Amino acid sequence: MAQHQERLHVLLSRRRELSTFVQNVNQRIRIGTALNRKIMYCYGKDDDLLCRLEDPDLINSQTVDLAVLASKVGELRNIELVIRRIESGQERHCVDCGRKIPAKRLEARLDTVRCISCQEEEEEARKSRRTRTAPCLFNNDD
Predict the structure, then answer these.
(1) Confidence bin at 114 (pLDDT 50/70/90)
(2) What is the pLDDT of residues 35-51, one digit of tens each?
(3) Minimal CA–CA distance to 98: which of 112, 82, 114?
(4) Long-range contacts of range 55-64, CB-CB < 8 Å, 24 or more positions apart?
(5) Cα–Cα dist 14/132, whole Å
(6) Phi-psi region of 135 (alpha: psi -120 to 50; beta: other; left: phi over 0)
(7) CB-side exposure of 136: number of CA atoms within 13 Å?
(8) How far apart are the first and last CA of the chain?
(9) Burial, 115: exposed, middle or buried (Cβ in 10 Å; 0-12, 13-18, 19+)?
(10) What confidence score (pLDDT) does residue 96 get?
């Protein structure tokens, strides 16, 4: 029981950290978006002029912020799931197959929700989704 309380405490702490981080990144993105709108409003809607006026560093910063934000939101969602599972007493069983997750795995990975074999399958599926290529829309035979 003490291990569950300790694990829950660590996860709740991590959830607070991630929530604060996500809020800060969202705020930076809103500020950057507002700044770009101000530039467009002040200098008109001539596409050529806008291309020269928009700050490339700001745009790159927002792109990085969005990528980091997506990663942290995913981690936050997973922690929320683990916390709900701990509170309902289901944290010792895999979300996919229902088999018992070994205690050593739960200790090593506080945010785990899958047994090792299901986690490996999930990672393979995620990897194949990332590496899939879109079909070619152009006929190269011409």
Answers:
(1) very high
(2) 555 555 444 455 444 44
(3) 114
(4) 58/32, 61/28, 61/32, 62/28, 62/29, 62/32, 62/33
(5) 33
(6) beta
(7) 4
(8) 70
(9) buried
(10) 93
**Phi and psi (nearest 5°) for 100?**
-70, 135
Say which residue, 18 or 135, is predicted with more confidence: 18
| Residue 102 Cα to chain centre, angstroms | 26
Measured N-to-C along each axis, helices 56-88 and 2-43 cross at an angle, to the nearest 10 degrees, of 150
Three-state SS at 132? coil
Instruction: Work out the average pLDDT over 45-66.
Output: 55
Residue with tokens 């090792």: 116
Show the 3-state SS of 63-78: HHHHHHHHHHHHHHHH
Comparing CA positions, the residue from 92, 105, 98, 80 lying closest to residue 4 is 92
